[in-house]
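Dear colleague,

Thank you for sharing your sequence with our group. We've completed the structure prediction you requested, and as agreed, I am returning the results in plain text so they can be pasted directly into your records. Please verify that the sequence below matches your submission; if there's any discrepancy, let me know and we will rerun it promptly.
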Amino acid sequence: MHAAGPFRRAAGDFSSFCNDRGGAAGHPGRGVRNGVLRLSLGAVSLGWAAGGAGAFPLIDPSNSDQVPQGTELATPDAQDLKHQLQLSDSLAAPPGGGWTIVPRLDLQEMFTDNALQANSPRQWDLATYLSPDIHIAGNTPRLQLTFDYAPALSMYARTSSLNSLTQQMDGIGLVTVVPDLAYVDLRALAGVHNIYGGIGGLGTVGATGQAVGSLQASVPGLAGTSAGLTRSDDVQTNSFGISPYLLTELGDWGTGKLGYSLNVTASDRLTGFAASPILSGSGPNAATLISNEEVAHWGSGDWLNPVQNSFDIDLMQSQSTYGGNYGLNSTAAPAPSQSYSSTRNFITDKISWQINRVVQMFASGGHEYIVYNTTGGLNVDDLTWSAGTTLTPDPDTFLTVSYGHLYGYDSLTVNGRYAVTGRTTLTVSYGSSTGTQLENLQSQLNLATAGSNGTLVNGANGGQLFAATNALPVQNGVFRYDTFAAGLQTLLDRDSFAVNVFDTTQTRQGAGSASSNGKVLGVTASWQHELRADLTLSAAASYSMQNGISGIGGPGNSNSEAVSAGLQYQISDTVGASLRYSLFARQANTTAYTFYENMLILGISKTF
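Please find the predicted structure tokens below.
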């Protein structure tokens, strides 16, 4: 949807000053408002800023110039980093618009001492991973697109039952049907994760782009070609969305938006050799979510400054279908499938007051109606409210804090980004939402935008997405999610550091088994160092902890780690080779789920 580029504005979800650097690619000058307050149109309530379930796509041409895209470096710094194998800038549309299309082929050979990831008996094996990748980045007057597709073939020499073909994909596109009026937002996501969660939080959901088939020892690269994710425990998850909408500005009077969104999300355990790019969502181990959403928005224009008002209506109808053996129940005796509908309606009015250049205060009120027609049920018919402030001390830093009543309970919401230096950024978010695991994934995709390295990032602050999806065990049910996420990234002349932390508490809503409640904590860290222009040293570590989560066939309370270190040598402009060592381990209360695995991986990649 957005071409990669320098950091333009850390604006937050709802309001901010726009600086005078100009707009996003394809919309020059949109950001020039001389510090006039503008309202983001992507959400109905403050809860959505933290990833609340079921949100219409957050980013549109009215606020695309406010999306954090990465740290902006001064010209000498950018020149110093030009040999860092695209550590700061990755594949993007050409400057000034056009297309970048990069085919790539990754081949990796792996030796493992525990192919089945079993406590005992341990079985060594040799595996071949082959991943063709196509990356497309486009920026034209009618289409902005970032798309990456990389199916991964895994072939084992001794344990053929682990052979698989999985799907990795992400894509965000914006089609301009009628300039300044009619648009279509397109989104796609596919990835693999462990049915029991953990394994250091590894998974390829949201880890596409250059992370797929990555020869470097990055945390996403550990699972980029499914290395270390065995088919017996894999779950393939796909999500697709199309959202046509009308968006118009009536000068200083205001901005109106009217839209519809169709989203289909499906998940299925890998019981056969190949996972389809489009899952059917049928079968005893499968789940599917189909949602229809209608939104209407009106935001006042500059004539009310320094006071602004916005009014939103959001209506969603969903149909969920679960196989009787879905998720942690997949090892149980066959059970009948279930299907149920749900409704989520929000009406919200929000008033903002820009006190000065730095401080904005806001308050909102409205009504919510949430019904899940499932066993045990969930019914919320309630008034909503919130109050908070947004602090914008400089163009590259913001913090929004609010407290309110949403989804039937009171909760705190925090969202921010801090430019510590010109090379270091810190992101933070905290919030609560209610929904199923597939709804939570769908909401994260609607919150996503394309980051400067081609992967999907949080459109509100540039932080991480999908961490909980990769770390949580797969379960059926309606949950409350309380999620904290923070990330720190630093770019030096020859080094790149990144640390991400997330903490998610999952609480069953309505009647249901309390064993579904639990907490997942994850920490990932990575480092890349340029030894010389053609040789890079990299290392990564990931830790995840599950507490209170159990179920039939699940490990229950457990800790898991993933560690990797490697060298990458650039043979030519288009050919690279790598050697890396990785260790996966899990310690569980149930001995059968405790294991460790050592892997040595030799890889080669070719870019065409």
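Summary note from our side: Residues 1-54, 70-89, 209-225 have pLDDT under 50 and may be disordered.

Kind regards,
the structure core
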